[in-house]
Design brief:
The protein is of the alpha/beta class. Helices cover 37% and strands 25% of the residues. The chain has 10 helices and 13 strands. Helix 7 links the parallel strand 5 and strand 6. The N terminus is likely disordered.
């Protein structure tokens, strides 16, 4: 794929910079009174592959519910999105969910997927380019939660943020992301966003504690990544995946629990873990339509319309930025 090839491999300087940021974030998180790791660090190549496996599981309803909903959404958007558009996907992953938009919305001239996992993104882009040879595909390896500088274009911009990744941010962080996305996309442009809904705690619990243990592997892989990339010696076998629905906060929480008192070295810095101590790796907030509409409004967006999947399992919103 010509456009992806222009990116090439990350420069040594850029790789070093990302490694330094990863190290600082890990040390800060594991030195805190309540230990934490940022969920964006799940997504190295191995973590991205684990997440692709999670999306095939019967228990993990968000992926299938949204995938079933998106063709309906794309079909109904055709009369609204009639101009020429540059499509920008935040946290692009494997690029499966963008296909209904590419199939239905004829005005899409280019596609810019943004993701932090470079190797996984470039592989997915090569596959997508084979399926859509006339589409300009311009991947960007970046932290999509921050403003991203895009190529200058005279086309309108359509943002796409599927999955329930907005739920990985706290409400304040979600408001910041939406505000940054507005800056990236520009005034009077659209964002199509997937949002998980509040539902049965049992259904939520099952989705994050699958029988095959793939979610547990995905969670534990963040420690494996620290070992691989930061010259660390964390005994991964001494940690256990733990996920539950916190009804008071309206969120799933994922943790890694230390099974014993232990000490690890990360580039020569010692980090201690007490038996039973938790490392909080992810939150996944769920929203009612009223709650999410208010959140979007607080960041400068207005809801143009929304769609609900079967049994109200999942929601997709079309937002418009600015006045």
């Amino acid at each position: 794929m010509q456009q992806a090839a222009k990116l090439g491999s990350p420069s040594k300087a850029n790789s070093q910079s990302r490694g330094d940021i990863f190290f600082r974030d890990v040390i800060a998180g594991l030195s805190a009174a309540n230990k934490r790791l940022h969920p964006k660090y799940f997504y190295d190549q191995q973590g991205s592959e684990f997440f692709d496996q999670i999306c095939t599981l019967d228990e993990y309803y968000p992926f299938q519910a949204e995938l079933e909903l998106l063709p309906e959404v794309a079909d109904e958007l055709m009369p609204t999105l009639t101009q020429d558009y540059d499509l920008i996907e935040f946290g692009a992953g494997s690029l499966r969910k963008v296909k209904p938009l590419l199939d239905c919305i004829r005005g899409i001239q280019s596609f810019t997927p943004i993701d932090i996992s470079g190797e996984h993104l470039r592989t997915a882009c090569r596959q997508l380019q084979d399926e859509y040879p006339d589409l300009r595909v311009q991947p960007v390896v970046a932290d999509f939660s921050k403003p991203v500088e895009l190529a200058v274009s005279h086309n309108k911009r359509l943002g796409f943020f599927p999955g329930s990744t907005i739920g990985n941010f706290s409400p304040g962080e979600a408001r910041d992301f939406l505000s940054n996305a507005g800056t990236t996309l520009g005034n009077n442009n659209y964002l199509l966003i997937g949002v998980d809904t509040k539902k049965s705690p049992h259904l939520l619990h099952t989705a994050y504690n699958d029988r095959q243990g793939v979610t547990a592997q995905f969670n534990l892989n963040i420690l494996e990544r620290i070992n691989r990339e930061l010259d660390a010696d964390i005994a991964v076998e001494n940690f256990e995946h733990y996920a539950f629905y916190n009804a008071a906060q309206g969120r799933i929480e994922m943790h890694l629990i230390s099974l014993e008192d232990q000490t690890a070295s990360i580039q020569g810095i010692e980090v201690t873990f007490r038996e039973g101590e938790s490392v909080h790796t992810e939150s996944s907030y769920k929203y009612t339509p009223a709650e999410f509409s208010q959140l979007a409004k607080s960041a400068g967006w207005r809801v143009e319309r929304h769609w609900l999947a079967r049994d109200d399992l999942f929601a997709t919103y079309l937002l418009r930025y600015g006045d």
